[in-house]
């Protein structure tokens, strides 16, 4: 029990760490296997699988390093026993697809009340990482998630440099993300480093260390007094959620890097956009956006050509090629669609819903607003870009 009065309802299985270790805790369900997916830092622009010749990656980091890694002392500025005694060494789990049941793995089942289940379903409903699950996978994940109340502001749920143990979904409250350029939390008042982002209700964090077997890339701290998280253990995350998250991020990674409007975002911010995108193909002549309609989506053109038209004018007011965007005005201004956008060839578009647009493209709102649009009557067909 904590000397601060905060008692983990989950005993030693508390994913924020505890002073003891239980053999029955979820961490001990890990399958011991060879580490064969050494990685680069997940927050560098070209993260991905590398050969096993980069020992410097582990230097100065905690995380899933070989077992001789140092265990960092906890700083004094958070409730006692939070994050203490974290697992500091694990081997990689199997990356076999979930459908392969030959190793008899089954996810942990944490019983829930009807009220908890309802809150949990609502919390994950807006999270894109859960959108692509089959029904049985969804049921397994719902069973494996554990409720974690975070009773105070300023609690470090994740410490940069630590080993990754849980993935978190935010049901209630807000969390701040800090990165120290040394790669790990440092002592002292500025030890968390620079604030790089916030995670709101419905958002999630803690996937990077689990996906890449890397140390925690950031420190994540509660920003409000009464927050609620749902935690998913590492193995269930890797077995059920990781494959689709990986493949979506990979699929969009190089495309998003080449989209001019997204150039100022960090690789991590682009990966969150990748999680939220839905691709769609249309034949030539398809009305992707209809002038006057309410706006629900923002679009990036992945392939082909499209053009914008104003009613009563046969010439386009704007032409689009690969990497261009459209559909931002109605969302930025809460106004009806200002023009129709029609595919000129077969196209592939990546669609971002309104909520994701507001949440993920907030940092570049001023850049999005810079686009100049001509009115139909000013259009010189030879000048339209
Ligand atoms: N800019 C960022 N850089 C790194 N991690 C971030 C950033 N913003 C949010 N995060 C989250 O913070 C988490 C810290 O733990 P992980 O490295 O497992 O996963 C990280 C991400 O989920």
From TrEMBL:
3',5'-cyclic AMP 2 binds at residues 328, 337. 3',5'-cyclic AMP 1 binds at residues 207, 216. One of its GO terms (molecular function) is protein kinase A catalytic subunit binding. The keyword ATP-binding does not apply. This is cAMP-dependent protein kinase regulatory subunit. Residues 1-22, 38-52 have a biased composition (Polar residues). Residues 129-258, 261-370 form the Cyclic nucleotide-binding domain. SUPFAM superfamilies: cAMP-binding domain-like. The keyword Kinase applies. It comes from Neurospora tetrasperma (strain FGSC 2508 / ATCC MYA-4615 / P0657). One of its GO terms (cellular component) is nucleus. It holds the Pfam family cNMP_binding. Tetramer, composed of 2 regulatory (R) and 2 catalytic (C) subunits. In the presence of cAMP it dissociates into 2 active monomeric C subunits and an R dimer. Keywords: cAMP, cAMP-binding, Kinase, Nucleotide-binding, Phosphoprotein, Repeat, Transferase. InterPro entries: cAMP-dep_PK_reg_su-like (IPR050503), cAMP_dep_PK_reg_su (IPR012198), cNMP-bd_CS (IPR018488), cNMP-bd_dom (IPR000595), cNMP-bd_dom_sf (IPR018490), RmlC-like_jellyroll (IPR014710). GO terms for biological process: cellular response to stress. Belongs to the cAMP-dependent kinase regulatory chain family. Residues 1-52, 89-109 are annotated as: Disordered. SMART domains: cNMP.
């Amino acid at each position: 029990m904590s000397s601060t009065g905060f008692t983990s309802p989950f005993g030693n299985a508390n994913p924020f760490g505890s002073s003891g270790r239980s053999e029955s805790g979820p961490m001990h369900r890990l399958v011991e296997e060879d580490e064969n997916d050494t990685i680069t830092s997940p927050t560098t622009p070209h993260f991905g699988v590398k050969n096993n010749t980069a020992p410097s990656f582990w230097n100065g980091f905690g995380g899933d390093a070989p077992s001789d890694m140092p265990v960092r002392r906890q700083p004094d500025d958070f409730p006692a026993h939070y994050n203490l005694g974290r697992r500091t060494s694990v081997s990689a789990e199997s990356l076999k697809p979930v459908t392969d049941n030959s190793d008899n793995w089954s996810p942990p089942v944490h019983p829930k009340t009807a009220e908890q289940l309802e809150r949990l379903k609502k919390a994950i409903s807006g999270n894109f990482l859960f959108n692509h699950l089959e029904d049985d996978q969804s049921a397994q994940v719902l069973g494996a998630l554990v409720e974690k109340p975070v009773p105070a502001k300023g609690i470090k749920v994740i410490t940069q440099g630590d080993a990754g143990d849980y993935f978190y979904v935010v049901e209630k409250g807000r969390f701040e993300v800090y990165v120290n350029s040394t790669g790990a939390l440092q002592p002292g008042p500025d030890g968390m480093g620079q604030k790089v982002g916030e995670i709101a209700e419905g958002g999630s964090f803690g996937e990077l260390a689990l996906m890449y077997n890397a140390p925690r890339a950031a420190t994540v701290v509660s920003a409000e007094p009464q927050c609620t998280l749902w935690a998913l253990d590492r193995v269930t995350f890797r077995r059920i959620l990781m494959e689709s998250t990986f493949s979506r991020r990979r699929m969009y990674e190089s495309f998003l890097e080449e989209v001019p409007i997204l150039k100022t975002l960090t690789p991590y911010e682009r990966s969150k956009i990748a999680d939220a995108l839905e691709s769609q193909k249309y034949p030539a002549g398809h009305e992707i956006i209809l002038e006057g309609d309410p706006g629900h989506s923002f679009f990036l053109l992945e392939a082909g050509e499209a053009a914008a038209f104003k009613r009563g004018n046969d010439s386009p007011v704007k032409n689009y090629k690969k990497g261009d965007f459209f559909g931002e005005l109605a969302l930025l201004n809460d106004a009806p669609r200002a023009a129709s956008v029609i595919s000129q060839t077969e196209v592939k578009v990546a669609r971002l819903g309104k909520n994701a647009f507001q949440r993920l493209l907030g940092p570049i709102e001023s850049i999005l607003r810079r686009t100049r649009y001509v009115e139909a009557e000013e259009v010189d067909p030879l000048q339209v870009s």
